[in-house]
Give the backbone structure.
Amino acid sequence: MAKLKINKNRCKGCLLCITYCPKGLLKKSQSLNKLGIQPVIFVAGRDSCIGCSFCAIICPECCIEIFK
Ligand code: SF4
Ligand code: SF4
């Protein structure tokens, strides 16, 4: 199972990563970041992260790091 590190304070909330995650493991946070928007967070689901890196590649702000 891969692990994610998301820089929440750089996230601008475009939600591209949520759209591209094949496992549905990302969602909007209920709290605000330093930019005043709801950043994306990782959520534990029935499936675990497969480390495909789609979320990291698509992020225009380079907020997401994958550790395999
Ligand atoms: S690496 Fe792939 S499976 Fe894991 S959170 Fe990102 S898009 Fe989803
Ligand atoms: S793609 Fe990057 S900037 Fe866009 S919502 Fe996801 S983490 Fe935030």
Notes: The pocket of iron/sulfur cluster (ligand 1) is lined by residues 2, 4, 20-23, 25-26, 49-55, 66 (CB under 6 Å). The chain has one domain: 3-67.
